[in-house]
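User: Teach me something about this protein's shape.
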Amino acid sequence: MESSNRNRALALAALFQSAAMVKEIAWHGRCDLDQLQTMVGSLFAFEANTIESVYGGVDNLERGLRTLLEQIQSPAHHVDGEISRYVISVLYLERKLMKNPEMIKTLRDGIDVASHQSEAFGITHENIMARLGETYQNTISQLGPRIVVQGDQSHLGNSNNAARIRTLLLAGIRAAVLWRQAGGSRWRLIFSRNAIVAEAKGILDRIVE
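Assistant: First, the predicted structure itself:
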């Protein structure tokens, strides 16, 4: 993975996209199925050579780019606290995961099983969501602290929604790994913020032309 502001912007966009979708499902019980397919597909794209190919093209990260810009550029009192909390929590858990080779293997094995099952069911089928959600529970949830998702209990209590939320948090971990591989860090986000914003704006402008 090339260390560049472009790749860092795209990885962050993917992370913000997963966080925004978690919030949407938690409060409204729904999400865009094309966006869900993009995020789930990223979990199965371990052989991809570029970050664009992980997500099937930058067009599929439009929502994440918009969310990234809204969160970074807005005054503090206008920032979406839920989305920010999910992003910060995922970045923290990814760092803990990278120190646990045994858990990384368990995680990869679970994703491999889901990937093979998806060939028969399709990658957004509820069986695949259930498998990926279970993988998240058996790995990332064990690292602690657990990510507490806010929302409408009528949606959070639905098993299919819960599995989708866990799957999207897993996709967030994938994006956090890409962020790190592209040279991302807490300090980089602070000191290269303007460069990342400029990259995200440029990519988004090209998408909507």
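Now, about its shape. The CA atoms of residues 60 and 78 lie 25 Å apart. The domain at 5-208 is CATH 1.10.3890.10 (YcfC-like). If you'd like, I can walk through any region in more detail.
User: That's plenty for now, thanks!
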